[in-house]
Write a structure and sequence with these properties.
With 120 residues, the protein is α/β, with parallel strands linked by helices. Helix content is 35%, strand content 22%. Helix 1 runs parallel beside helix 2.
Length: 120
């Protein structure tokens, strides 16, 4: 079993089920003691901003703010550098605990021994 899980979520409100699945898997992994690194890319980039997760709704799914909080409490959340730039999001805009990093860091994390990478 992988000791670390790197999850890249590319979907946001445009594909709510896929988005929710990524956050749910990340939160369950954190709760299970797995080291988790969740990457926000594409439309999920908006969830790096305060209050944006509260706007997300999907029936029969855990509330996105709760999932986000649990991931931040026990894992790492990273916003893609290019995705942030395209949306004019800067370090001062994001939630406390969210970092902005690029593809080199993603590849490095994903290729580390004992790591499983998932893309949603």
């Amino acid at each position: 079993m992988a000791k670390k899980l790197v999850i890249k979520v590319t979907a946001g409100a445009d594909a709510p089920e896929r988005c929710s699945q990524a956050f749910t898997v990340a939160a369950v992994a954190v709760a299970s003691g797995v080291e988790v690194s969740l990457w926000l890319t594409g439309e999920s980039s908006w969830f790096a901003l305060p209050g944006r997760a509260a706007e997300f709704e999907l029936p029969h799914a855990a509330p996105l703010p709760d999932l986000l909080d649990s991931i931040l409490a026990g894992g790492r959340i990273t916003l893609c550098t290019q995705c942030a730039a395209r949306r004019e999001i800067t370090e001062k805009d994001v939630l406390e605990g969210v970092r902005i990093a690029g593809a080199q860091v993603f590849v490095s994390e994903s290729m580390a021994d004992g790591t499983q990478a998932l893309v949603y």
